């Protein structure tokens, strides 16, 4: 297998859905089409950027879904020390019993070191 000098860049959006909606709803399909069109449009003049045309869904209402909010910045995060990490959410872990994104964890360490 030949290695390529490429990077897959993923971006994510969170969509509020109605309880009756599921993965095949016309509303979600419309959002996905518009998102893919936006990506294609923004990068249409750069031959070094190609959309994968791939969309992944991570349902945040499943009880075993690995996500939460950083205790400090409140951004959606996924704990990389647990299974089923959601790679398009910010990396986080439990620090002394508190879920913190890596950035806030670093800022806490820096603040503690300055004290």
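^ structure tokens above, recovered residues below v
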């Amino acid at each position: 297998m030949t290695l390529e000098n490429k990077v897959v860049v993923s971006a994510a959006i969170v969509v509020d859905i109605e309880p009756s909606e599921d993965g095949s709803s016309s509303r979600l399909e419309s959002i996905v089409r518009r998102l893919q069109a936006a990506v294609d449009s923004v990068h249409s003049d750069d031959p070094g950027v190609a959309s994968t045309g791939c969309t992944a869904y991570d349902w945040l209402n499943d009880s075993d879904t690995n996500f939460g909010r950083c205790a400090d910045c409140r951004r959606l995060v996924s704990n990389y020390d647990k299974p089923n990490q959601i790679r398009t959410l910010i990396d986080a872990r439990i620090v002394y019993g508190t879920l913190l994104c890596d950035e806030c964890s670093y800022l806490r360490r820096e603040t503690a070191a300055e004290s």
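Residues 18 and 46 are 37 Å apart (CA to CA).
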